[in-house]
Amino acid sequence: MKKKLLTLLLGTSLVMGLAACGGGNDTSKEKNNGGGTETASAGEGQKIYDQKCSSCHGGDLKGAVGPDLTKVGATYSKDEIADIIKNGKTGDKGVMPPGMATGDDVDKVAEWLAGKK
């Protein structure tokens, strides 16, 4: 009985772990999470966002642990967004830690997010 329960528990853990780590490689060109404009650098900004930001802000920008970013460009300028990414921010949805992206990545993500209005 214990062996069956342990096997079931480990199997379930494995499936859940793989589901959480699995990311789709959606190569659809129609994908533009949250609207805004789509440029060559926007594609890079979205890619960086997907890698570094989506775990808190959601792959659809609608927020998860972090706030909704679908219209962040209507509230903040590119420079303000870059400052938040570099230096972090405390808000009603928790804390954005500083340094989540660095160098050119900050500007690419900030430019992409600034287009979300």
From TrEMBL:
This is Cytochrome c-551. Residues 1-19 form the signal peptide. Residues 40-117 form the Cytochrome c domain. Heme c binds at residues 53, 56-57, 96. Keywords: Electron transport, Heme, Iron, Metal-binding, Signal, Transport. Binds 1 heme c group covalently per subunit. The keyword Chaperone does not apply. One of its GO terms (cellular component) is membrane. GO terms for molecular function: electron transfer activity; heme binding; iron ion binding. The keyword tRNA-binding does not apply. Pfam families: Cytochrome_CBB3 (PF13442). InterPro entries: Cyt_c-like_dom, Cyt_c-like_dom_sf, Cyt_c_BACSU-c550-type, Cytochro_C551, Cytochrome_c550/c551-like. Residues 23-44 are annotated as: Disordered.
